[in-house]
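INFO worker-7 received task bundle
INFO bundle size: 2
INFO processing item 0
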Amino acid sequence: MNYAIYKNVRNASWQCLIDCGVTSLPIKPVQLAALYGIKCKAATKERLRGTSGEIVAFDGEIYISFREDDPPQRQRFTIMHELGHYLLGHLGTEPMTRSESNCRPEEEQAADKFAIDMLAPACVLWALDLHAANEIASICNISMQAAEFRARRMEQLYRRDMFLTHPLERSVFEQFRRFIDSKK
């Protein structure tokens, strides 16, 4: 992913955590979407035409649909992924449906990054000294696949030791401080 896009997504996730007043893990995707006036609802795989989810602007309302038969951890990721499309401006100004089938690959990557940054904020995982995927999956209520991805990225971040260098990240860290302290 282009570094400018990476930074934009990272900053958007930090700003979302701050704006929504998130202070603990696991986050609550449906409640976060509601803060933006977005309604979430389960849908059949037939309705979603084989995709995990979609975000739809319809009749002045915005809806996120996710597969009713997906595990809860996957549903949480899908909701955050779709919220990422919304907050990253992928919907544009026209009422439309945004799903995996009509998205550019770089938008899908950006929405995936937004989802994992929201569900498993790096500065919080760092403060809790979490390294193993199973620990990350447990505390963040995410799938093992997402946790393994996050654990690999965290190892890169641990090697670089560049935590709390951005003002937004420091704000997220402070917002989570009570939660972090309670887990140590």
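INFO item 0 finished
INFO processing item 1
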Amino acid sequence: MRFVRRTYSDVSAGAGDEDPLAGIANLFDVSVAFIVALLIALFALFSSGSLLDPNSKMTIVKQSDNGDMEIITKDGPKIKVEKVTDKKMAGQGERLGVAYRLGNGQVIYVPESALPARSGPKAAQP
């Protein structure tokens, strides 16, 4: 007969220790881990790791859906963003000379006063 009489005091004592919000805390932990995994995947996808490297140099040309273009240049820790536009700048300017790029990549600037006088269509060819 000792199995017939059971006391339910042990069962009811453990029910009060369970926190109903413990499941929500676990969901929060899972969401934080998911967000970190997404950030790592995005950096790997776009190869943006070099943007975080303080010694890297890179140039990115980006065009948006509406046609605006940006040139993003990173030289060490400095990042410079330039917007490309087809608008003409205000004011007048004057031609100072001509720059030529040689086969080895060297650029030579020739001032306007050192250029020969222009005559005919052959003068336009360098």
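INFO item 1 finished
INFO post-check item 1: The chain has a mean pLDDT of 75.
INFO post-check item 1: DSSP finds three helices and five strands in the chain.
INFO worker-7 idle
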